[in-house]
Design a protein that fits this description.
Two copies of one chain form a homodimer. With about 240 residues, the first copy, chain A, is of the alpha+beta class. Chain A has five helices and ten strands, in the order ββββαββαβαβααββ. In chain A, strands 1, 2, 3, 4, 5, 6 and 7 form a seven-stranded mixed β-sheet that branches. The longest helix of chain A is centred in the middle third of the chain and has 16 residues. The first copy, chain A, binds a DNA duplex (27 and 27 nucleotides) through helix 5.
Chain lengths: ~240, ~240
Amino acid sequence: MPSYPQPIVTVDVVLLTLIDGELSTALVQREHAPHAGEWTLPGGWVHTDEDEDALAAAVRILKAKAGVTSPYLEQLQTFASRHRDNRGWSVSIAYYALLPHELVEGRAAAQVTPIATTPHIKWRGVDDIRSLPFDHLEILRTAVDRVRSKTLYSALPVHLMPQAFTLSELQRVYEQLLGGPLDKRGFRRRIEELDIIEPAPREPGTREAHRPAQHYRVKRRAARLLPTAPRNLDVKSA
Amino acid sequence: MPSYPQPIVTVDVVLLTLIDGELSTALVQREHAPHAGEWTLPGGWVHTDEDEDALAAAVRILKAKAGVTSPYLEQLQTFASRHRDNRGWSVSIAYYALLPHELVEGRAAAQVTPIATTPHIKWRGVDDIRSLPFDHLEILRTAVDRVRSKTLYSALPVHLMPQAFTLSELQRVYEQLLGGPLDKRGFRRRIEELDIIEPAPREPGTREAHRPAQHYRVKRRAARLLPTAPRNLDVKSA
DNA sequence: TTAATAGTGTCTGTCAGACACTATGTG
DNA sequence: CACATAGTGTCTGACAGACACTATTAA
């Protein structure tokens, strides 16, 4: 066993959702020093007595601090150094989670109070956040870069959508994340070949003065499946 | 501060090189229980008194256990659970490193004894390894998958090459990693546009009965730069 | 019929795969 | 010259970008 003082181990989660079309992250208010009262990413110690692994810790923390269950959740990166926390050498196993906005604060209740939720949580546009305690800004930036990067070649953003959504809505989300307009034809071609969504039964629907759109939902099988990166070098066909 | 027993924190490194064209990894012999005498990935505790961060710990461990300095080194993934080590809840911040074979056991000495090196280190082809203590096989597989995946769209394998190499040699490495023949023309087009290598001054050269090849070296600026993933969705030109 | 959004047909330039060709060294 | 490997020219099919067109609803 080690004779050195061991680092402190925490799990921090970048919880992302879309609020009014803007990519936003959950911040929670710290109760204890250091940085008591300040807003940080939801995080906490690993509970070695109840968490099976780091992912389980992330799930527990999301539930406890943000009141949210089981969205898309993936390990991001581990931040570990002597300087990131003034209590000493510390390790943060960082995760990022994507959440349909409708699930913020449980079910459709969010439709009524879309921004504020529990007393100690708030949502902020990721590009409006200029500083955070510890190295949480770096963690946030890393997560956002990852999401935007994966948007380029995967269907990751479907996990930000409500249970049923139209292709036009999905395209607007992509355009928001990528920062520019996309061609409708090309967008639909690509989404289709990613094969991650399927038509959903038409709902009674709001009556609007134009052609109603087909609704889609994430395929069950694909729900947690990450598309692999594209091959750019193909071995010759035999 | 946490009232729970804290996890044990280690750093493990998957050190990869090419031996006779085969992707191989370094294994070191454990001195202490558990698994004393068995071969595992080089790893060790984080030394909170001397390591600035996890990367520094990886560098130190590589030097101490494998006698190797400063190859390409990148964080892979963190493996953290109650079950991976029977001493209790443990965290492994895993790194992977790429090493030109000529640097194994320092300089060109490796040319003479290419396989065996120090008493407590050995090299094995990654596909020949069927089991390892702890979850080291999973860590190894994850690293190999990552390298092979990045080979598809980046110039990562140049870090496995000696200081100067020809495009034909590089292509053979790619073919080895990807498991099939590549078209010469397409391969050279792609490497060129990655813009990561530059012509090296011709060496006196071995006299062979055919046209000699241009030698290349990794560009200084690009030495540690990872190419970004390709964009497959382009925002419309304004 | 108009307005508005959903959804499709299709042209075209680009580019990767394929492969044949030329280049340059030694014996 | 032959031979072997290095390196390039170039054809072609596939496909992504672009954009115009049709479809479908309510007012």
